[in-house]
Design goal:
The protein contains 8 helices and 15 strands. By secondary structure, it is α+β, with helices and mostly antiparallel strands. The structure holds 2-acetamido-2-deoxy-beta-D-glucopyranose (3 copies). One 2-acetamido-2-deoxy-beta-D-glucopyranose binds next to loops.
Length: 443
């Protein structure tokens, strides 16, 4: 992890996250154009027919003269920064149309491939070793395409800078960034968030996982690679919290020194407060180690049961008004874990939230929880339940509701991904994105 690339000394309301490195130049900020060239084929590979530079990436642009005076850099993503981005044709994708849509491979992106995500205990010994070594590589390989945003103070744009990060840390950072309180009229609103407490929750996390999976496929050249998941239903304790899998820990929560992730450091640890982004995301500062304390929290000392998952899948409404953490009889709110799934009425911690708190340590600090690879395994299983719901109730983009949650409208871009994926477009069968799930213990 090298440090600062660019200081934003320009007087621009420009900040970017998970940003294409090629679009963090002074001229990209000045012109608000993010249409990098692909090879020798011009911006967005236009001369090779891969795409074109399109004005207005946002599918629901603000009407002229009605641009809201929000201070938050993520709102209306990525409209606040770029007016023009690449629109890619056919099976092409990526910030310069130089890559393929998820699920497609080959120079012309004409080979469709569906990988199978399996329960981590279904993998052979060799496949497990391969998974852990790929993660180790992703944690130490600098992201070629993306840089992340670091600030000391969100009110002062001259403290913003872009820093290099590893492939895994870019993934961890995206989650952290999406969860920061929203700055509106100079005050912080922590009751809304771009990735949680609303209908965007399942799709947002689906996109995060599939982007990490693809980065690992490209980094290793292993097109068959699929992220595994952890089916925690009915577990008495975290049975994968051993050194063969995600690591044993001591009573303080420190991972066993002989386990795979004992040397990992958490990006943005210690900065889980609103007025800064991730100021210490560089090696000059000491980042915390991962910590985990499964079962140690007396309020959340169990994992969800088979019945909890069954009950969650009873709710045929994808989400219900008011589309936040108080939604009743809502599949999304039951899955996210603000609702008792059996009655659909009682607000209580369950499912997704319960597992975060059960695992403790880094996982229980939800903003930075993505630093612990058990996050990937946990969300893989959450995504599998989402997939089961889509099949059971024939979910399509039209199922995604209109709602008032900031950044979670059906036509808004999932924040802060690049390129733009509309929230509603993430409500599709997983084969559309190039993967499916194994059947394990009846699900
Ligand atoms: C896109 O991929 C499909 C395979 O799923 C292929 O049939 C089609 O020809 C591809 N499109 C182009 C323009 O290559
Ligand atoms: C921000 O302040 C302006 C002017 O005082 C006001 O009109 C607007 O409603 C406020 N916006 C929000 C979201 O509070
Ligand atoms: C989980 O419980 C089983 C028995 O129920 C025990 O053998 C095992 O050591 C426990 N594992 C952990 C990580 O606590």
């Amino acid at each position: 992890m090298l440090c600062l690339c660019i200081f934003l000394t320009l007087c621009l309301s420009a900040v970017y996250s998970q940003f294409p490195r090629a679009c963090t130049t002074e001229s990209a900020f000045r012109t608000k154009i993010c249409c990098p060239a692909w090879k020798n084929a011009g911006p967005c590979g236009s001369r090779a027919g891969r795409g074109r530079c399109r004005n207005m990436i946002v599918f629901q642009p603000f009407a002229a003269g009605q641009v809201p005076q929000y201070d938050d850099d993520r709102l209306g993503w990525p409209r606040h920064y770029y007016d023009s981005t690449c629109e890619c044709f056919e099976n092409y994708s990526g910030f310069n149309c130089g890559s393929c849509k998820y699920g497609y491979f080959g120079e012309k992106c004409d080979q469709k491939k569906i990988v199978i995500r399996r329960e981590i205990r279904e993998l052979s010994f060799l496949e497990q070793k391969r998974f852990f070594s790929y993660l180790a590589l992703a944690k130490t390989t600098k992201s070629k395409d993306f840089v992340i945003l670091s600030t000391g103070d969100r009110h002062h744009r001259d403290t913003y800078r872009f820093v290099d990060a590893s492939i895994y840390d870019v993934f961890a950072w995206i989650h952290y960034y999406s969860m920061k309180p929203i700055l509106i009229n100079s005050t912080f609103d922590s009751t809304h968030n771009y990735a949680h407490q609303g209908p965007a929750f399942p799709g947002w996390h689906r996109l995060g996982l599939v982007s990490l999976e693809r980065e690992i496929q490209l980094m290793t050249g292993d097109k068959d690679f699929a992220l595994p998941y952890y089916d925690w239903r009915g577990e008495k304790n975290c049975s994968i919290c051993t050194n063969d899998f995600v690591g044993d820990n001591d009573v303080q929560g420190i991972l066993n020194p002989y386990s795979h992730f004992s040397g990992w450091r958490c990006i943005c640890s210690g900065f889980n407060y609103p007025d800064a982004y991730c100021p210490f995301a560089s090696e000059e500062f000491q980042m915390e180690r991962l910590q985990r304390k499964p079962g140690a929290n007396p309020q959340s000392n169990r994992l969800p049961s088979f019945k909890d998952v069954e009950d969650t899948l009873k709710w045929g409404n994808f989400d219900t008004p008011p589309y936040n953490n108080e939604a009743k009889q809502s599949f999304r709110n039951a899955l996210e874990g603000f609702l008792r799934a059996s009655d659909g009425m009682t607000l209580e911690r369950n499912m997704h939230n319960l597992v975060h708190i059960y695992l403790g340590g880094t996982m229980s600090q939800v903003a930075i929880s993505s630093n612990d690879p058990v996050f990937v395994l946990h969300h893989g299983f959450i995504d599998k339940i989402y997939e089961a719901w889509i099949h059971k109730y024939n979910g399509t983009p039209d199922t995604y509701p209109e709602n008032e949650e900031l950044g979670q409208g059906p036509n808004e871009c999932s924040t802060p991904y690049f390129p733009c994926y509309r929230n509603k477009d993430l409500l599709r069968k997983s084969t559309y994105f190039g993967y499916k799930y194994s059947t394990y213990q009846g699900l």
